[in-house]
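Suppose a colleague, Dr. K., hands you the sequence of a protein chain of 352 amino acids and asks what its three-dimensional shape might be. Before reaching for any lab equipment, you can write down a predicted structure in token form. Begin with the sequence itself:
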Amino acid sequence: MIELTDVTLKYSSTKGIFNLNFKVEKGEAFGYVGPDNAGKTTTIRMLMGLIRAGRGKATIDGLNCFSRASAIQKNLGYVPEDVVLFDNMRVKEYLNFITQMRGMFGQKDAKLRDSLIERFEVETRGKIENMSTSMKKRLAFVTAMMHDPQTLVLDEPTSGLDPLMQSRFLDLILEEKRRGKTVLLSTHRFEEVERTCDRVGVLKEGHLVENMDIVSLRAEETKAYLVKFSAPPNLEQIKKYGFGYLQFSQSDYEIFAPGDRIDVLMKVLSHEKVLVFNSKNQSLEEIFKKHYQKEINHHEIKKEVKEKKLIEKPQERMKEKPQEKRKLLAEKKTKTKAQPDQEEKVREVTKA
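The predicted structure, expressed as tokens, is then:
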């Protein structure tokens, strides 16, 4: 299990991660998504014990991610976004080195390693420095998973891979999840989240702006259906039940329904002569864009209110200024009358 409680790690007032709270249960895959520089990699480096959180607590299987990093990594598989290997080593030499570091000497361990090499078609001959970026990433998969870890932390794991290898890797994630593994998948590929994850956290400028399961996320969104009728439908009945529609021709329509009211739509359409019914579901990417927009609109309103206040204050001071100016002039005149003229004082002293 992975758990973050009020975790903050600041690089500046706007860069870093702020008050992160989320949990990834055993046997669950959690998608961690957001634009570049949102704080995804910072979170993962902190989970790996590479950097210490400024505030809050991060644990994996109940162990502190920074102070117990070495103990955690014995049962953890990590694939970084940018893979760095020992380029001067030969591939077989490197695999043997990692095998020994992992304390793997049994035939069972070697069998899992070899099956991963075969699955990802890793070329084991030659030096690492001569491998392509894709081949290095596949080698990283093997070394991250060959000890059968219970927790997987994956940072943009499929970047640099061709579609076939991407698909094989996602299939492996699904298999590992079914076996009860805990998976944290950081990615900007929404199709990967749809395919593998149970829940998703949306990160924006270091803040977690959404944390919900994918079924609920989809259920709350409006879905569109392309429907072809053999006879004009009863549009009044469709409107009566609160469904919107667009008409393209006498027989072709696009009907809109909330994700949790599809069963009602089916009952309404059961009284019509439907020839074709195709769903036009939104992708997760489209859904997330809406959530980002809500967040952007909220920030823009706050910014607009703040700017309005800043504009109003100088205007208020400008209104008060003539009055203040008159007051100052009056005080100056009083002060001048109260004090004798300096030249007159000098003449009096000279005369004396």
